Amino acid sequence: MMLQTLTPSEEEVMQIIWKEGQIYFRDLMNIFPEPKPHQNTVSTFLKILVEKHYLNVEKQGRIYLYRPAVEFVDYRKFVLKRFLENYFNNSGGELFNILLDEELITAGDFENSIKSRAVFATKPKHENHIQDFIKEITSDKKSKKKEKDKKKKKDKKK
């Protein structure tokens, strides 16, 4: 599914819903900071967000429950990619240099990030010591059992 850009007002509604996880219209209105938008305006934003596939809606009696259909992490990646396309010629390096120049990050932050990624990449994907132990025990028993069976057959032949 291709994500569509959100207006600042639509994004404000989504920020609240992402934070809450799921929400009813009345609760959404109560959470909105002052000055609160008109109910019809918020209702229209919700309708648009459903049409843009950002929200799933479930009717419960006479009220609706709204849940995010797009995770915040996915939206954040989408926005960052568009930001890089529009302002940095798809260059993460250009963005990084500006972040360094403006002292929004430090070289140490970058080094720590690289180190943590390297440690994560070198860890085995799936460690399950219990399964390994069970395999070791059962495989060893099978081979010992086969050896015992062979000895019994030899002894019977003699």
TrEMBL record:
GO biological process terms, semicolon-separated: negative regulation of DNA-templated transcription
Top-level taxon: Bacteria
Keyword DNA-binding: yes
Single annotated GO MF: DNA binding
Keywords, sorted A to Z: DNA-binding, Transcription, Transcription regulation
Similarity annotation: Belongs to the BlaI transcriptional regulatory family.
Protein name: Putative transcriptional regulator
Lineage: Bacteria, Pseudomonadati, Bacteroidota, Flavobacteriia, Flavobacteriales
